[in-house]
Amino acid sequence: MAVFGAALAADGLPPLTLGIGLHADPAIAGHVGSRSRHEYSALGDTTNIAARLHSLELGDPSLCSRAVAAALGYPEPLVALGPQALRGHSPLEIYGGNQHATAAVVVS
What we know:
alpha+beta, two-stranded antiparallel ribbon
């Protein structure tokens, strides 16, 4: 991303950014619509929380809820960012990736 962003900047274009919001809880997923027009979608509070996390501007491109951090065993790259207010939801404890640490986390 950094290399591609630098190439865009060299051409006078705005940088490309990537944001990820993760939350773990039950959700309903499947095909929604009629036989002639449908799409695969995920519905529920879980997807809404993930979208709200994605939209937070905390200076970290990857944010997750405590539920995700706990499921991963609170790996070292995650740092607690404190409770954050989410639109349409009560505040949640949010975790972000330590930008200076590197680690691989595999979820099976």
